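Work Package 4 report. The design task specified in the project plan requires that, given a folded chain encoded as structure tokens, an amino acid be chosen for each position. We show below one input record used in the internal validation round.
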């Protein structure tokens, strides 16, 4: 009898207490989102069950809770997800369960609860053991908290991994060597040192483009990389991946190896990705869903949709076209609310247009008919959203969706010329300034 192939599971928890200035992950502030978080847990559980139906019997070798900040999760929710995974697939006796955590005192207090639920490996986001560097990185802990958290983690979990960020402005090889040695003194079996990367659209990207500071040059970065290999190698750590070092083969992350060895993995959560083997071949998990949208140009939208959140809000079966459009509708509504918060509305007439638009969008969500949606309209939206996403600007994405929908509203409702001008102003104030001369298709 052929043994079932191995499988890893990645669970994405997008909530953070603070958004770091270097981070371009799919994350949001957790404050005031109690109901949303509860709904997301339920959606993740349903998503895992759906993915299990696609994968069939597998040997579950790893579960990785990433983020965001999964150490902010209610431990009971972590337990429910672990239990669900073990019920959907055959968990190996040596199942590796990893949870990412920040080293604040509040989160460290939960370590014992997570360990009791089966988490055996903690990935601690120390990032630095220098208080000035931590402030620069926008972290909400200091070096003393990081040291205390590492000590609590060693006591609670059999395995500890530490993340560090280097190649900071002004950092010298001697500085970095001292920091590596201090991190090793905390007793981890695994270290993940990442060179600071300036990702487009982040606060650091904006600061660098404005000339406020500059990252180290390539030569300095290479010297810091060499120091990393030297110090960790002398301490008995092997570099089994570019940015992952383990103290012996047993200390390597089994979940990381699932990726590197080309095994299947399921992704659940708004920022998760997966690849599984089906009778049709090895595919990205969302490819099964995108097949439903073939010929309508909605693949690009579907890839961006927070599917678990929408599944929790709209549990009844829904055509993918409608779900994709509802996603845009909700994004536009959020964008319009943001405009009000920042005082960007310029006239009472504009407010009236916006209010009518939001009412129509709300009715569309309920009935799917009042807005007069057509497949070719979605194709126009997708085309523009794809261009916008390639420029890594979420605000631009939302304003451009708003722009197109306002034009659709005007065309379908036959508004007066005065209102038409107000609609035009509604989006030109934001989208028009950055559109770079591009013309709306169909507009």
């Amino acid at each position: 009898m052929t043994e079932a192939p191995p499988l890893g599971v990645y669970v994405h928890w997008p909530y953070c207490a603070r958004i770091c200035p270097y981070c371009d992950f799919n994350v949001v502030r957790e404050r005031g989102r109690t109901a949303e978080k509860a709904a997301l847990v339920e959606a993740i559980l349903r998503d895992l069950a759906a993915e299990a139906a696609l994968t069939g019997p597998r040997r579950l070798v790893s579960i990785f809770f990433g983020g965001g900040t999964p150490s902010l999760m209610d431990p009971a929710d972590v337990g429910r997800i672990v239990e669900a995974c073990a019920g959907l697939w055959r968990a190996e006796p040596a199942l590796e369960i990893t949870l990412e955590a920040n080293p604040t005192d509040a989160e460290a207090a939960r370590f014992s609860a997570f360990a009791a639920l089966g988490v055996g490996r903690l990935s601690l986001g120390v990032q630095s053991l220098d208080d000035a560097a931590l402030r620069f990185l926008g972290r909400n802990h200091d070096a003393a908290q990081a040291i205390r958290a590492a000590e609590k983690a060693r006591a609670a979990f059999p395995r500890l991994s530490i993340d560090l960020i280097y190649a900071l402005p002004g950092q010298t090889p001697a500085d970095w060597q001292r920091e590596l040695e201090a991190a090793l003194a905390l007793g981890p079996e695994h270290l993940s040192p990442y060179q600071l990367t300036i990702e487009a659209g982040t606060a650091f990207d904006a600061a660098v483009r404005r000339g406020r500071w500059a990252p180290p040059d390539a030569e300095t970065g290479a010297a810091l990389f060499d120091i990393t290999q030297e110090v960790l190698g002398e301490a008995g750590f092997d570099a089994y991946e570019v940015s992952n070092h383990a103290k012996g083969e047993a200390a390597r992350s089994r979940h990381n190896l699932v990726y590197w060895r080309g095994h299947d993995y399921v992704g659940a959560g708004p920022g998760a990705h997966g690849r599984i083997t089906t009778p049709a071949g090895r595919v990205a998990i969302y490819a099964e869903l995108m097949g439903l949208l073939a010929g309508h140009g909605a693949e690009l939208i579907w890839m961006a949709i927070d599917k678990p959140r929408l599944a929790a809000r709209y549990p009844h079966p829904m055509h993918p076209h409608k779900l994709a459009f509802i996603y845009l509708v909700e994004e536009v509504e959020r964008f319009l609310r943001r405009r009000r918060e920042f005082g960007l509305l310029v006239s009472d007439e504009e407010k009236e247009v916006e209010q009518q638009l939001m009412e129509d969008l709300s009715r569309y969500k309920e009935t799917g008919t009042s807005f007069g949606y057509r497949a070719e309209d979605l194709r126009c939206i997708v085309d523009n959203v794809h261009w916008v996403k390639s420029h890594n600007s979420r605000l631009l994405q939302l304003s451009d969706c708003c722009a197109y929908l306002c034009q659709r509203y005007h065309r379908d409702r036959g508004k007066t010329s005065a209102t038409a001008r107000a609609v035009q102003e509604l989006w030109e104030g934001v989208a028009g300034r950055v559109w770079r001369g591009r013309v709306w298709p169909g507009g």
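Residues 307-434 form one domain. Validation will be extended to a larger panel in the next phase.
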